[in-house]
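# nightly structure sweep
# worker-07 picked up a monomer target from the shared queue
# config: single-sequence mode, recycle default, output format = structure tokens
# input follows
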Amino acid sequence: MNKNQNIAMGISLAVVAVMVGSAEIFGEKEIIFPEITAVAMGALISPVQSWNTSRTRLFAAIVSAAVAGVCIVRFIPAILILRIALGLLVAVSVITLSKTSFVPAISACILPILMGTKSPIYVISVAVMTAFILIFQKVLEYFGLHEKYEYRPIEPSSELLKLRAKQVITVLVICILPAHFHEIFFIAPPLIVAFFELSGKGSKLMKRKYTAIALMAAAAFAGVMARFFISEKLGLTLTFGAVLSSAVIFVLCRKAKLYFPPCCAISTLPFIIPKTAIIKFPFEVTAGYIVLTIAAVIITKIGNNTNKA
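# output follows
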């Protein structure tokens, strides 16, 4: 398994290098899609695919969500909480209607909203980089280096719809203050994705929530340190820093035996934020994730008590 994972990690890091390298060469930061490291973790590095979805549905969901996010920035008034609310509704609808559990689509939609991205380059990057990962997944499966996943459609039952409504409302309430003061790292898109995974029915991640918090904090600090010391202080390329921070979190996830895709996206996010925001990023991300974890625990307990009643 370790040999197969090493191959998968090597492929994932190559995709990160191509993505960030292309952004540097063409001077287009919109090419950098941090969630691609999460997709790589869940689709390639994890022994079993992290989400209940097929390749076609995964691709359609993430690209549709990315298109929606860019359109919201282009056509909806610049009231951040309004845009976030609409983005959440659209992304969750895409996930539900696609009958999958592919919650990273939320990040694909919310990221351009928080970053103010209007460029179609972002959508193209999402499509191309996701396609790379899925093609490599198919190749690894063909050679017996990755376990095939058998997709089982998730029907949108009334129970699921109620859960999604609770999740969306909870996230929106938590987003109000960060959106108002524009402290967006408290509600970084991968944190919202992690919240949805934590608060999902029968979440296995909930049993290891403290490890997840540690990995999220480690990812945030690894990304910032790579950006600050390697790219800013030593003057090396962003590509080198992004590959290094991704490698660190990939290894940490494997050592912890918790294949946690959202923290991988957090490790890449520092490479698209302003220099002035680097110092506060890991602290706000960690604090934001702790708040969202507490919220997920509360939702889960309320749900369990309701079921017992």
